[in-house]
């Protein structure tokens, strides 16, 4: 058996389980109804057509369910498409579960929590430490499973926590290189910077933007949350204001969604560390899919560039 | 007597009261200390030099006090400058008061409050009405005296309230032209849109930006305040989210400080009405100072344009 | 019967009259000729396919004629498409007429003319009044039926006159708020600002750009017309120059087609009023089509934004 | 005697005639009035100070008059400044005249007219030829003496005609390389493209912008003039429209003042030829002033670049 | 017989030889394999479908071979498509050769070499002349057959040499108009400016970018080559540096690939001459395909403009 | 004694040694010559005026010499200025040396070399290692003393080597976080990326741009050097091309001087690490000069931002 849907080529026959990501109805040019399904496993996704779908089919196949599907991999407008021959819902006896079909961070959530907790122990500024503890406690469940984004980078289960932990590691090293850096402030900023995504995104698998996400966005959402947390915790040191500023400015520029640019050293560092980790995540995953001597596909969030993997990487 | 400092020309002798806006020390090229004062009345301001200032002078003349000053109006690098011959603090017996030297809105604050209150009475959506009442009550004193900005438009006492009232009048008329508009939403947005300036600006006369103003800015400040007000008032309808969005988006574009552009009809209208009233305020005040057939000075906040007053305006 | 083509869903059968907006021939992958028709009524338009079209069909079905058409509403690439079962030209006895199938301004042309005329009566500057009368007389017929644009806003019969009248109403109110405004100048600018479109656009239903429109554009066309009118009427006051400037600058910026930005107060106001009325026209029509709690389609001329209709709009 | 004011260095004594370009009054820090004069000859200009100026001095020394001046060349803020020791108006007996102090094109106006006329003879399209003759006749006097601009390029007497003649020569060569080019159209476009400057600029020596120049600009002015000329000459071929388009588009882009970009081959060529001749004029004059191995001053109209003159240019 | 593939319309039957530019396999929605061929002659190219292709077909038909093809010209998504009825490789006895199917410069390569050589004879600066000779000798074969680009302008056999020769002719004329220009420098810059393309592009017919082309680009490639040539020839005058600068800056701006803008007169001229010749090549070829009174297709490399051919061009 | 010139305030008397950075002559408004000196020590620099300078003074005081100077610190246009009372050249017996007056990296050059050498030992790719050794050997002397820039960041003795070593440390940590990174490639890129500055800058103390620096710039200079080194070392693996690409792209964008953006993972990382180290160097040095609760001066190379030092930094 092949490793996953991403490894099938035009002409192959596919016969295995997949997760339904989306299902929409259509009417073919011959007037007959059909279903367009987006099917996925951890290696990728494929558009599939169930021609001459019955009303029962339309009822049956819904987003977020597992199916057993058999069909031919064709090509349509330059992209692979699965022409379904047979399809049925997965059953208990099939021994497959949804979590096997969703991409996950390479580190489990217990370890991620442990690493975040360890960093919090290192903090000495009581205001910053209390603030961070408050949020970890409040959002622990979601924080450990949410993706960091809808697409582009860390867009998988536990992506947000994995992104935080990677950033904390970079921060730790930069602190040792630049001892002037306020470690507590930088750690607090990293842990909190994207928590607004827990309200901006609709969920864990196949997330979209909530109404609040569309009209306000994760940055102002989190600025407000910090203000309210400070009230609840009765903290009124300048740390609150600086933390709000760090969240507000972490996209770096007004055009990128930060109404104020970083105006505090640790805010600038937070922005740079976020940039590095997001870019490396995108780059590494794109390069993993190509052989030495080849270019990756275009990476939209990296100015549409295609990256080259040198031939001497083999050695 | 001339009408005010703005009407004095090079060569004139000035002998009257002025308000000290700022005072800074310097040392002249001959090694002697001097004072640079910015002096103002309601018509404008002038830089003044008190050469060979004594340590007593340096102590005595401070920002926000009234002085009687006599001197010659010279020109330095193309701008008028007052060479002080004599200067003394104003005394009780002089019969002058600070409020006579600060520019004020053309309508008194009682009338402004009345007009805002009247509009609130017209509102029928209880969530929006309660929210607006809450803020008017909380900030009434400052709201009625604050300027709307540090410079450019409505930068005078009661400028903020005057700006709100003008915008409400425009809103009322546009509502009658476009009946689809949600009047309550638009009114609430107008009344609240700039209240964050009460925290962004340091005060009423000669205001500067507070630390919170520099690091967060009046838009996120007010978004947070609305969230907290909703908690206090236990309002949780969609009105809260929409109001926050209106505040957030009222500058129209990311580059202008709004991380989300207007995505609700009344948010778009709020942005446009704000634009019109701010521009008309700048334009009318600049054109007032020139004769028909002349151009105004460059207006920085209007893309540095100089505006022309047609000759037939005389008729 | 459903209200119009825009209200039909995939799977519905359509059987009614429509106006042919465009007709083009094609050859199907089976080698057989077919016709692609764009059919419309006042609610919208739909692409329709007449498969296996005969040479007679190709001759018969032309742009700007009414047809009776029966067929199924399918979906093709995410958009509805009508698969024609039968089609025939409308006949005199069908009792339908083209004007019923074209969108029109919500006010009839007599009323529009009346409202414009009323405003002209209010003008007191003889040069401006004569100029405006001259153009109203010269272009009255076209002015009352032309659209204001090919697409985006007021793109329907009498759209131009309706846009003018709406703008005049806004102008009247702003004059009362800002008494410094020169009413006559602003009224004249509004009435004349887009008259160049009578030469820029090819006609009333389904207009395209004329050669003059493509190579010169409505702004320089109208600047020239005002110059010639002034010659004909022997007016040579500064009003002519200022009016030409208002037309020239009414798009606000060089990038938007105005080689000079507004440099006269009423020119700036003209630009702002034009902006408000165009945007409100687009917004109101887009929001009318969606339910509370939904977003509109993307509005190209409003930076591709999708607007939200709050749920509390129902109340 | 040195060749001209541009060749004097700090420390030199100047004692010769100069033309007053501008005169403004000031008051020195010692309270005494002084005059700031801008004095020029064909090599350049210098700011001059007449300290302790009498009221008679202020009356006497006016723009556009010749003076005999003696003084020291100092330096003020990095720029040379003339400290006047003595100054008097030039007298008839001094044998100097204004035209000796203004820069002129290197070719006399009779020759320029001859070269333009010769080109007109070569034209065969009667509509284009008549149009060009009409304008040459109408504006002959001004056309032969006006500068092509207020500053940057060809900003000297007969600069406009000289610019036209240079462009015609380039056009002639490009026509021979690219025979598809419509020679008559290109010639007509070149001759007429900047004639609007005769209304945009106030005069020949020390020109500024007229009100019409500021509010309308030379491009729309000339588009209108061509329309009126066509009416007068009863020409209504497509040539009129194309010529208007060429004028309208000759700055190449909206941001540079052309509401339509070139959409006809000869319009594109006109834009490119204009660019080359303007740039070469600026470059050659700037390089003339420096030695091999040196950089020119910053050229504002060439993106503020400084150009290098290679050392091997000496050979 | 029609003149070439570009002149066939939908509905025509094509039966002639064509060159295979590219061949890719696909699987139709009925599950059967097919071939998509891009076929071309000197007038243009067409996409062709060979439905139900056999494995032998897939082997047989490859890029860069000549085929005899018969089929119907259909339309698919608004573009012509050839539905192949029969296809076979061309044979020796068919009397056709590849060079007849590739577009070539309008001048043969011997003449181009002669014209370049002639210019080199005119050069008097020994360093520049030796440098140019070195490269002409080194790259003569490729230089005379390479295209100047992959698309947009001079994208045909000998396009590079033809572009050089056209530019040299313009240079010669501009030298006579502006005698200050250093002829040798300008000639050398023109001849060498695009030689880096011999390494940037993969070949002559259907060229693509090499890895070196993608990662370095023709400009830095050629800067390096000049440095190495100077070493080989033991030239160390300033000419080397200036030539490198001319190559480096010839795209005019950083955004267009020149890290330094032109800072030497001849570098600026090189950029302008390159611009003119590239634009005229694009424009003339696009206008050649349309009739008077029509617009060309959109020209991507000319800001997507469509150009108009005036009706009086017929005369 | 105060610590250095940067710590003197207006009104203080300065009496100590300083290094002359620049000396220029002027003539005062009283007609007398004066000298403007820029004097510096490791803490900063100050403009100084020697009024009524004799011709001997003008001869004597030159750039790059040490002087003993006494005078008063005044203020001129908001900046401190030293009014010289007495000045004399430093003598051997004064026991001061130039190196004490120039800012240096905080690590000595032996240590820097050691750290670079250590990294080279870790490299295993022979092509990359040989290339790096070649350049370290070729440029060792200059590399260890040159600044990394003329201003903004690491603009002090050994700044370049210090910048390289800091970047190597960051690289080492990122390699451990992202094991996919090719360590040898990244190290080689970091060590070589700015070596072109050794030709771009004129020297160590008070450096300016060389002609080669102005016309070519350090990026293409180094691309060429790598090509030549590869020839000398007879290396022709893909490593050469990739290294050249890394140098070429390390500024990240065309507008910032890189004609190709990073298209290899390690090239992107090189760009990001360069950014972090340059920014941290600027930020730390600016923040060092201010107290908690204050803002820094505007940092030109960081978009003119002023950074805030939080009050809780004291704790």
TrEMBL record, chains A, B, C, D, E, F:
<dbReference type="GO" id="GO:0004527">
    <property type="term" value="F:exonuclease activity"/>
</dbReference>
<dbReference type="InterPro" id="IPR006674">
    <property type="entry name" value="HD_domain"/>
</dbReference>
<dbReference type="Pfam" id="PF01336">
    <property type="entry name" value="tRNA_anti-codon"/>
</dbReference>
<feature type="domain" description="HD">
    <location>
        <begin position="163"/>
        <end position="279"/>
    </location>
</feature>
<keyword id="KW-0378">Hydrolase</keyword>
<dbReference type="GO" id="GO:0003676">
    <property type="term" value="F:nucleic acid binding"/>
</dbReference>
<dbReference type="InterPro" id="IPR004365">
    <property type="entry name" value="NA-bd_OB_tRNA"/>
</dbReference>
<dbReference type="GO" id="GO:0031125">
    <property type="term" value="P:rRNA 3'-end processing"/>
</dbReference>
<dbReference type="InterPro" id="IPR003607">
    <property type="entry name" value="HD/PDEase_dom"/>
</dbReference>
<dbReference type="InterPro" id="IPR012340">
    <property type="entry name" value="NA-bd_OB-fold"/>
</dbReference>
<dbReference type="InterPro" id="IPR050798">
    <property type="entry name" value="YhaM_exoribonuc/phosphodiest"/>
</dbReference>
<dbReference type="Pfam" id="PF01966">
    <property type="entry name" value="HD"/>
</dbReference>
<protein>
    <submittedName>
        <fullName>3'-5' exoribonuclease YhaM</fullName>
    </submittedName>
</protein>
<keyword id="KW-0269">Exonuclease</keyword>
<keyword id="KW-0540">Nuclease</keyword>
